[in-house]
Amino acid sequence: QMSAIYSVDESEGLIPPYSNKTVKVFFQPQKIGHINLPMYFRMRGSTKPPLEVTLCGISQGPIVTLEPKNSTINFGKTLVLTLVEKKIKLNNESLIPAPFKITIRGKNSPFSVDC
Q1: DSSP code for 105
Q2: How many CA within 13 A on the CB side of residue 27?
Q3: Which of 51, 56, 72, 109 has its CB 3.0 to 4.6 Å from that of 104, i.e. a possible disulfide?
Q4: What are the residues facing 33 on neighbouring strands?
Q5: 81 Cβ neighbours under 8 A, 6+ residues apart
Q6: How far apart are CA 16 and CA 35, in angstroms?
Q7: Percentage helix, strand, coil, to 5, in the chain?
Q8: Could you tell me the pTM of the whole model?
């Protein structure tokens, strides 16, 4: 998988004498973490090597919060052999999906999770 997709709004053009040109660079990370990618500018007719710019960024995954916010689910006093249900609300506060997996400690745990 590519680490990022990037492009420019103008891949070629002309810079008038003693002036400058602004080119927009678009960057869309495809994975989480540090990303460094090379981009090259070649001047037509030049025998010099292309100018190199490194595109770098740190992409982050989804931002998820829990309710209750204190990360504690208090069942209080519960009678033995009585099933009590509590709920946890997972909030995805990002523009991208947030896949999740809940694990319960130990394969013989008396607890289970229904998703």
Answers
A1: S
A2: 15
A3: 109
A4: 59
A5: none
A6: 34
A7: 0, 30, 70
A8: 0.65
